[in-house]
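Write out the 3D structure for:
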Amino acid sequence: MSGTKHLINPPGTEGIYKSMQFSQAVKSGNTIYVSGQVGVDENFKPGSGIEEQANLAFLNLQHVLAEAGATLEDIVELVTYHTSMKDILGFSKVKAKFIPKDYPAWTAVGVTELVLPDLLVEIRATAVISG
């Protein structure tokens, strides 16, 4: 299976795949590369505030990982993009609920904006599962 590329697009994300032209994740061998997940609900409505958006983003990340046969515990690296680094403590509080131990590598990056005007955070992840 090493060297093969499997596109991961859970039900409900087909519109994103077609219109934005990217997969929610790509699995190659035992590694899963997850595209940035944002804090929107199933109707693509952004959450209110950093903690609600972070919670929704982690739920979306969890959903994509599950579709790929992985869990949050399989994450080896997180990269998060924040429109305000002043929100990092609120984000970290939510992150600790989803990843309470065995922390992955993490890089937090401040950006001026994300794909939708009301978004505050985006989470990209790399996970490795056992073969």
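The chain has one domain: 5-128.
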